Amino acid sequence: MGTWHWLTAGESHGPGLVGIIEGVPAGVPLTRDMINEDLARRQKGYGRGGRMAIERDMVDIWGGVRHGRTLGSPVALTIQNRDFTNWAESMSPDPGQPDRVVTRPRPGHADLVGGIKYGHRDLRNVLERASARETTMRVALGAVARAFLRPLGIEVYGHVTRIGPVSAPAGEWTLEDIRRAEESPVRVVDDTVAAAMMAAIDQAKEAGDTLGGTFEVVAFGLPVGLGSYVQWHRRLEARLGAALLSIPAMKGVEVGTGFEQAGQEGSMVHDAIWWEEGQGFRRLSNRAGGLEGGMTTGMPLTVRVGMKPLSTLMSPLGSFDIETKEPFLAQVERSDVTAVPAAVVIGEAMVMLVLAEAILEKFGGDSLPEVQDRIRRWQETVREF
Ligand SMILES: Cc1cc2nc3c(=O)[nH]c(=O)nc-3n(C[C@H](O)[C@H](O)[C@H](O)COP(=O)(O)O)c2cc1C
Ligand SMILES: C=C(O[C@@H]1CC(C(=O)O)=C[C@@H](OP(=O)(O)O)[C@H]1O)C(=O)O
């Protein structure tokens, strides 16, 4: 068993969320503000519904950090659900009769299959945990991974590349370009398309519909040789793909130019190798997205993710009540129209959690200075290869 583990617990309308991450080296600068910054980023984005107006996500640190530095012990985090005050009775862990029972499964959500699988006749018992509320804690844990990666010179940020029918122009963006997307209400780098994206969201909202989209996450500053080709589960794209597809509503992952490569000739796709005295090897382009043979090449790692349109529809699709077996057209209280801008931050978190683990596998080390020293020596080895 490796030393890097993390888990989350908590329901969407319960008291809050809990997360534990183990394996973070000692001496990593980490504060609540650093985690809260990413939590606030996840809450932003045009197209979110009423729930985001209620929540103001803030973390509490219950273990693993003292005076702004990690101790090497498990880092334990909690985040309160402010909405719990409206659900305290319904979500009580104490014995009693449940109210606000859900018997009408939404097509596209976990409701029906989860109910059948676990024998829940109140589908709230399914949707409470299937909800993407849980990703709040993933972002908090991802911020811990960010705090570890940053002093190693590694930065991971993402941006929206499509919402519904509106695509952003393609480009190989720098870290500064991608950070600029933060100013945009739809988290897009080229803001000439932001207005069209927001108009598409307004139109979908008016029609009682929802929109999906795509986003890209890029990791800068990675050393050569994270991951491996020697066993299927050690290939880094396999681990990134699994991590990204574990986010609710994510249905596809591309590495580099991905699906486009399938229709192109090899000479158009592969990245030529270049060598220079004192610099060592590098690539003249990065269509591979920073991975070859399941290992990092040292170029920016680029993954693109496809998110489906959300399943809670104001103008619903057909479904049947599980008790009356009557068809119904669901009446819905609230839902997001799109959550692609928020999904970017969740995608960053998942990528960082995978990369931090891959760093520790390759370099090991119980303290940040130890890991830094090992990476410095490795970079010299790579330059001299
Ligand atoms: C940030 C975020 C917000 C979401 N908000 C909603 C929502 O408001 N309504 C909804 O039906 N689904 C929402 N979803 C998607 C559902 O959680 C997801 O579709 C559901 O868990 C079923 O899983 P699957 O789509 O992966 O099959 C959201 C997903 C994310 C990542
Ligand atoms: C709570 C969050 O997202 C929720 C994810 C979600 C779903 O079905 O996945 C449904 C909505 O929740 P509610 O049913 O309470 O309105 C979203 O707001 C969040 O992102 O923090």
From TrEMBL:
GO cellular component: cytosol
Recorded coiled-coil stretches: none
Residues involved in NADP(+) binding: R42, R48
Entry keyword Hydrolase: no
EC number, UniProt record: 4.2.3.5
Residues that coordinate or bind FMN: R129, A130, S131, G293, K308, P309, L310, S311, T312, R334
Pathway the protein contributes to: Metabolic intermediate biosynthesis; chorismate biosynthesis; chorismate from D-erythrose 4-phosphate and phosphoenolpyruvate: step 7/7
Record key words, sorted: Amino-acid biosynthesis, Aromatic amino acid biosynthesis, FAD, Flavoprotein, FMN, Lyase, NADP
SUPFAM superfamilies: Chorismate synthase, AroC
Keyword set includes Lyase: yes
Gene Ontology biological process terms in this record: amino acid biosynthetic process; aromatic amino acid family biosynthetic process; chorismate biosynthetic process
Catalytic reaction annotation: 5-O-(1-carboxyvinyl)-3-phosphoshikimate = chorismate + phosphate
Required co-factors: FMNH2
Pfam families with a match to the protein in the record: Chorismate_synt
Gene Ontology molecular function: chorismate synthase activity; FMN binding
Its job: This reaction introduces a second double bond into the aromatic ring system.
Subunit structure as annotated in this protein's UniProt entry: Homotetramer.
Protein name, UniProt field: Chorismate synthase
Provenance organism: Sulfobacillus acidophilus (strain ATCC 700253 / DSM 10332 / NAL)
Gene giving rise to this polypeptide: aroC
